[in-house]
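We were asked to recover a plausible sequence for a given structure. The inputs and outputs are reproduced exactly as logged, with field labels preserved.

PROBLEM: sequence recovery
POSITIONS: 390
GIVEN STRUCTURE:
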């Protein structure tokens, strides 16, 4: 009670009502669905509405009120100070109660009729509802909010009648926020001393997460059947996915050879390539003016080319597959043609031999320069079986 007033017997009349049963329990009502109770209903059970109530508040209230009784009274023409207010404690007629009703008569000696109504008169005579109670009973058309507080945790929640809910929970271990949409889509954020985690998910099973720790960051996206994961740490980066695509120029630096590799579209610029199999047709030098070409169905098996050679073809040297023949070709020099495919070239004791099971020919646009011993066998086209040149 805010104040204490002593009236004593300075009244014209006084009536005391029957005392209530001792208080044995209390209930603090938060909303239509939540309340905190303490004690039991064997005696007088008190109920009060408090949107900020906790179990600890209910326990403390019962400890202060347990065993106390409500004392109703009515007194007329009481000599009451003008400063008296409803809710003050008053001692009148030998009992201590509360000032619940006051009607003041002003005059030379202003007097007041005062009372604390009996139990069945409270709601009938005094239907006043305070602001806190009005706020707690107000059910808005769109939003309902809740604040729950205990010794170890605070929870704030806002809920819409359409199913949307946002919740913020804080305790000693961390902070968690959660937002849920109409269709069941949910996003969460959790912060603890060891890291921060976020997730966004849908009712269909799609989910993306981000987990940040002191030593790593992990991102993951999943649709229920496929998933992609990217993990970053001080030791490296790990990427896992069914498909990985890069757009733009990609450069790999600080490799084992202290060099770098650049990938730009269908171009790869690097130092050494070590592979079991390499598929391709043309292999260029660094200036791209000389290249080795492996034929793909045009008759030439292997050629060495130079783009600056201007005599009708770029070939400087080639091995080609003619009609039933294999040829060795050199730009501006001679070529050899073997009419069968069982030909071979070998070196025995520094003597070079070209062998063919069929006919073989020499042809050149200029004189042929042979040095050393040359031996012909088979159809020599008029040459002796053994000839010495040089």
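RECOVERED SEQUENCE:
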């Amino acid at each position: 009670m805010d104040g204490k007033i002593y009236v004593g017997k300075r009244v014209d009349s006084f009536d005391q009502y029957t005392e209530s049963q001792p208080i044995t329990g209390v209930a603090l009502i938060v909303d239509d669905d939540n309340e905190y109770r303490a004690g039991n209903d064997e005696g007088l059970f008190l109920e009060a509405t408090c949107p900020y109530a906790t179990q600890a508040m209910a326990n403390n209230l019962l400890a202060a009120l347990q065993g106390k009784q409500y004392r109703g009274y009515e007194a007329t023409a009481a000599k009451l100070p003008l400063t008296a207010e409803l809710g003050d404690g008053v001692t009148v007629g030998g009992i201590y109660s509360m000032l619940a009703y006051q009607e003041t008569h002003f005059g030379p000696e202003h007097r007041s009729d005062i009372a604390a109504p009996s139990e069945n008169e409270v709601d009938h005579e005094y239907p006043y509802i305070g602001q806190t109670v009005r706020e707690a009973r107000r059910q808005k058309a769109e939003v309902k909010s809740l604040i729950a507080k205990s010794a170890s945790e605070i929870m704030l929640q806002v809920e819409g009648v359409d199913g949307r809910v946002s919740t913020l929970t804080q305790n000693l271990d961390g902070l968690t926020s959660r937002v849920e949409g109409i269709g069941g889509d949910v996003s969460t954020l959790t912060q603890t001393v060891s890291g921060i985690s976020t997730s966004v998910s849908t009712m269909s099973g799609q989910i993306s997460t981000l987990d940040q720790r002191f030593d790593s960051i992990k991102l993951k996206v999943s649709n229920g059947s496929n998933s992609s994961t990217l993990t970053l740490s001080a030791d490296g980066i790990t990427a896992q996915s069914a498909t990985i695509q890069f757009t733009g120029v990609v450069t790999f630096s600080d490799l084992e050879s202290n060099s770098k590799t650049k990938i730009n579209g269908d171009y790869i610029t690097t130092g050494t390539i070590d592979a079991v199999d390499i598929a391709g047709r043309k292999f260029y030098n660094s200036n791209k003016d000389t290249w080795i070409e492996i034929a793909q169905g045009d008759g030439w098996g292997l050629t060495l080319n130079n783009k600056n050679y201007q005599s009708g073809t770029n070939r400087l040297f080639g091995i080609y597959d003619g009609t039933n023949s294999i040829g060795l070709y050199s730009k501006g020099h001679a070529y050899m043609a073997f009419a069968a495919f069982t030909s071979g070239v070998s070196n025995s004791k520094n003597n070079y031999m070209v062998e063919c099971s069929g006919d073989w020919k020499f042809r050149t646009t200029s004189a042929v320069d042979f040095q050393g011993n040359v031996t012909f066998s088979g159809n020599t086209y008029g040459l002796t079986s053994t000839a010495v040149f040089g």
